[in-house]
Design a protein that fits this description.
- With about 90 residues, the chain is mostly helical.
- The chain has one domain.
- It is about 50% helix and about 0% strand.
- The two termini are about 15 Å apart.
């Protein structure tokens, strides 16, 4: 399944939001931890916009392309970031 990589559609603060959540201490039982409903809604809306963009333009990056790139990042010869294509 193709993956859309449209930089203008990516929430620029998503990394900070995720880091903040991951770094929060877990001092409650897991079943009582609330989900940030707005962040979940934003994530869902971003997915819908990305899918609509894919359907409109056909531009995408495949899973294999992204996986190869990500796996190369920890090597001495990292690959360039995959480019969107039809």
């Amino acid at each position: 399944m193709p993956i859309l990589a449209e930089p203008s559609m990516v929430d620029k603060n998503i990394d900070k939001k995720v880091d903040k959540k991951l770094n929060e201490p877990v001092d409650k039982p897991l079943e009582t931890i609330s989900i940030d409903k707005q962040a979940l809604k934003d994530f869902h809306q971003e997915g819908i916009r990305s899918l609509e963009h894919l359907k409109r333009t056909g531009l995408h990056v495949t899973h294999q392309e992204v996986s190869a790139w990500m796996n190369s990042l920890s090597t001495n010869n990292p690959l360039p970031r995959p480019q969107v294509h039809l």
